[in-house]
């Protein structure tokens, strides 16, 4: 199975709901072999699959144990603290004290590096030599552009992210230290391993992990104390439009911020078409910028409260001016296109037909499978990255078709009653069974077609989720019918299944009559036999008596002669 090095599937927890497949903005999350998989070469590590999973079926690689080992070994370990921590921890000074108590030799806000990045951005805006400028603070969007919009890398600011710049600054001041980043973002794990930024940062800790690690420690919540530093306005970076808010006004560029990968892709498409020029664009993969980061999504936090805390501790009027930092802030971006298979139109159309997309009205483009159009889904199937059977409209159509076939052809009658006891639906077998072939029973009260008081009482008394059974003989229909009564809770319907037992009942009655006739004949035969026996016995008795007299007389005669 191909899966991301940074995100792991926990198969035992996966419900195959495909929510992650639908959420993936680059279709790197696929569904084959009855489970989701990530095509790592196409994944931008936006973390949407992790954030939207309702079953905790995905886990992010953890480097916390490695960090703990460094601390246990008493190594010099420095923590770069992303400003989005404000969403879950209000007291900066107390948090820094707590982390130093855990063994970190130094804790500093990543915003210090962000300020250096803003200085470089301001310089680029002042120079005005680039047709468009795209911020490069979000590693997920950086990866997206390099993989899917390689021709737009010329618009990417040649500036590293605040994390990398801050890491470089910390390493310059503390060459032997291990630098660890407290991250709201999964893409940062990959960024620190990028060969272009080697040596700047050694490890990442997710904000979820930090909270679990120090949850037992008490931190005063009643007072929000934050120390200040030069260009502290860079704390706004994790807020929507926060990067642009740090820059002075510029007449050469239109400032625009776009967050959410889908929206960013629309912007990039517009740039690709050449319809946008003279724009300085702040881009973020997460809706809500870094406060919407995937490693904050599973925590009970308030991102708006976090924004309010940051704005309370910055001077929005103090913009960051163009300047050259005393640390390397540069980065180089280049296209890294992902190779895709090429298929002919005949192959694509053949696959669409194989999936039942045989006419325009059967091409739904609903996106439920995770692909924006049925055509893109067909291409993905041809590439071996999608299951052709996954199509919600087709599945519903097949289910309805199968249900209709079963209901229309079952020999049992089926009646559906609404909450008022009126007939909602009735299948052909039920109408034939009750001699309603020429009558539309829809809207009729159940008592009109099943006139049995005991049955009607049972129908009204049946509770949701229960099934009751009753046999009724209907003289007017000349039928004996078994009824299975099923009460549904939502929606409030009652289903009555009718099973014609007339033939069985008639057969039972015929057998009973045959038994009775047989018993009667048997009794008559026995009685006749008894009379015959008695008569024979009587005759035998008379004959025996006469024989006895004759033999006695013969004996006496013989005795006399002998004497």
Structural descriptors:
single chain; 563 residues; alpha/beta; five-stranded antiparallel beta sheet; 16 strands; elongated
Q: What is the rounded distance between the termini?
A: 129 Å
Helix count, DSSP H or I runs of 4 or more residues: 19
Order of neighbouring strands in the sheet with most strands: 13-12-16-15-14
Main sheet: strands, sense, barrel: 5 strands, antiparallel
Mean pLDDT across every amino acid position:
87
Structural class: alpha/beta
Structural account:
The chain has a five-stranded antiparallel sheet. The protein is elongated. It has helices at 19-23, 48-52, 64-72, 92-101, 111-127, 139-148, 162-173, 187-191, 207-214, 242-245, 261-273, 303-312, 345-354, 374-382, 392-409, 428-433, 446-449, 453-461, 502-562, and strands at 7-9, 29-32, 35-38, 58-60, 77-81, 106-109, 133-134, 178-183, 203-206, 254-259, 279-284, 413-417, 423-426, 467-474, 479-487, 494-500. By secondary structure, the chain is α/β, with parallel strands linked by helices. Helix 5 crosses helix 7 and helix 13 packs across helix 14.
